[in-house]
Amino acid sequence: MTISQYLPSALGFGTAPLGNMFRAIPDDEAAATVRAAWDHGIRFFDTAPFYGAGLSEIRLGEVLAEHSRDEYVLSSKVGRVISDAIEDPATREFGEKGNLFEHGRPNAMVNDYTADATMRSIEDSLTRLKTDRLDIVWVHDIAQDFYGDEWLQMYESARTGAFRALTRLRDEGVIRGWGLGVNRVEPLEMTLDLDEPKPDAFLLAGRYTLLDHSRALQRLLPSALASGVDIVVGGPYSSGILAGGNHFEYQEAPQEIVDKVTRIKALADEHGIGIKSAALQFSLAHPAVAAVIPGATRPSRIAEDIAASTEKVPAAFWEALRTQGIVSPDAPLPEV
Fold first, then answer.
1. Strands 73-78 and 136-140: what pairing?
2. Model confidence, pTM
3. Catalytic residue among 27, 39, 46, 208
4. Distance CA 330, CA 323 (A)
5. Residues 6 or more apart from 81 whose CB is under 8 A from it?
6. What's the count of helices (H) and strands (E) in the chain, helices before strands?
7. Of these residues, 28, 39, 51, 269, which one is catalytic?
8. pLDDT (tens digit, 9 = 90+) per residue, 233-290?
9. How many other CB atoms are there within 10 angstroms of residue 214's CB atom?
């Protein structure tokens, strides 16, 4: 069974921002945001131990505990075990992502993709989330952007550890599916080429957006579609720059990206639509994509995402994006 068969809708909620990404968010604001997502009908929630050293999971679990576990689909990640040791979050380095969660909890995070660490990570996540099961488990960040030249070594550790452990859990019915959650296409392409084990889906963040999609279109998305491996698109707003923010790839957006967004925004204004609508609907248009999971830290953003996913976007807008070379000629466009 592909995950698209049990996802409640094509729009989910990515909770990385609830781990105090970029800023310290008050607990009540985080809770109100999750409740807003629930009240607007969202029933697919994605989180990870990495997000604020467990903070996102804790905050999400507090609210979801108010509801029946059978009412929603929940995914989290493995690859980093949260320890009781304390460190200064501001001194952490996350490869190209800098000090992404400097406002998170001070618990140290240990990178570990072995089978034993995978099982321990899941148990810890269940405790923080106040639940008895995860539906989907992603192997987190085994890619160049976090591990540089060591990424292949980390990938191999995951292949012989986490991949096999998660396959066993899926086969035993403990979880419904597993895959990789990364910001690069290369680990996903490698995994599709393996004879065993076989993943059910991939969570690909930032690589199938209006601003960056050409590489994913070349091989990954066609191969995933042919293999029956669903894609969940994370970061559809490219770290916020497509939603009125100033971050791209988790850093201050470079001028060339700002200029490109300005062009997209001008076209959106010309056709009377929101740029968030363009971003979400573009990512969802590819047949390999099962869902998109934008993040948010304010309740009002949830209503915006719901509206953006359903706003009627004229065909002339998509044609203009294509004509101006903003979207690849190979990218499927939404049917109008």
1. parallel
2. 0.96
3. 46
4. 13
5. 49, 109, 110, 112, 117, 120, 121, 124
6. 13, 12
7. 51
8. 999 999 888 988 887 887 788 899 999 999 999 999 999 999 999 999 999 999 999 9
9. 13
